[in-house]
Amino acid sequence: KEKLIEVKNLKKYFNVGKGKILKAVDDVSFDIYKGETLGLVGESGCGKSTAGRTIIQLYNATSGQVIYDGEDTQVKKSAVDKKSMKKKMQMIYQDPYSSLNPRMTVLEIIAEGIGNHEVQLKSKEKEARVYDLLESVGLNKKHANRYPHEFSGGQCQRIGIARALAVAPEFIIADEPIAALDVSIQAQIVNLLQELQQKKGLTYLFIAHDLSMVKHISDRIAVMYLGGVVELAGSEDLYDNPLHPYTQALLSAIPIPDPKIERTRERIILKGDVPNPMDPPSGCRFRTRCPKAMQICTEIVPEWQEVSSNHFVACHLYKQ
Ligand code: SF4
Ligand code: MG
């Protein structure tokens, strides 16, 4: 498989004053393949959104690299090259309503996406493009002159998706795109995203706080805890054979929908809370809550390693 994005030892630290540093993303490495959906899962505050925003350069990385289609995104570029790279990466946000400007019509919102990148388009052409985009997300021309407040949450998310598609991107980060929607609407939006992926050959990073949300849509899944990715594997592999104790706990919390299927996983309740990211534990960042913690876990940061084909984990239990 061809790599679209290589994330290498990426760090994003925030200086939060009084000499304190928030290590929101701390030494994260993974690849994203062309045309796949990589799920990125973890509790709120674990750094998933920050990782996403750093990958698409809404934030400057503190250190590490993001290689996009073979090109280092941090190497200084001309304004034109920068713009064309930005255009390839778009974001869909969690709260569909507040991510749309309430004073703009749907037409203006989506046309703005086009206009930012292709100033030379005539307004008639722009309009036609907007209508096409609306249709591709299950809306139509009749919706173009209305304002965001006239739409439901699910429709607003469709508008947000149309806006992201306006620049014909290759890569889209969907940051909890269904978390704020009614359960009955969630599947529709997931289906729409999948349909668009197939039609347009898009690559997704799909961020969610819960493993049950990403299983269906993701080819592979990365699990994040307190600024670090602790495990990454193909979706099936991760569900059938979770290696990291944190992944095992997350999976054990998912209800099994069919009561006829015997529950083979015992529910693992984690003790304590997620530690303050300003003051993370030494060694393994999960050790204060890990049911399997050992002495070495206090002292040494577990290495990120590929323990079987395409199955990565950072945990001393799997030292090779
Ligand atoms: Fe648990 Fe140790 Fe593995 Fe961390 S390295 S997850 S503390 S066993
Ligand atoms: Mg978030």
UniProtKB/TrEMBL annotation:
Belongs to the ABC transporter superfamily. Residues 5-251 form the ABC transporter domain. Keywords: ATP-binding, Nucleotide-binding, Transport. The keyword Ligase does not apply. GO terms for molecular function: ATP binding; ATP hydrolysis activity. PROSITE patterns: ABC_TRANSPORTER_1 (PS00211), ABC_TRANSPORTER_2 (PS50893). One of its GO terms (biological process) is transmembrane transport. InterPro entries: AAA+_ATPase, ABC_transp_ATP-bind, ABC_transporter-like_ATP-bd, ABC_transporter-like_CS, Oligopep_ABC_C, P-loop_NTPase. This is ATP-binding cassette domain-containing protein. NCBIfam families: oligo_HPY (TIGR01727). The lineage of its organism: Bacteria, Bacillati, Bacillota, Bacilli, Bacillales.
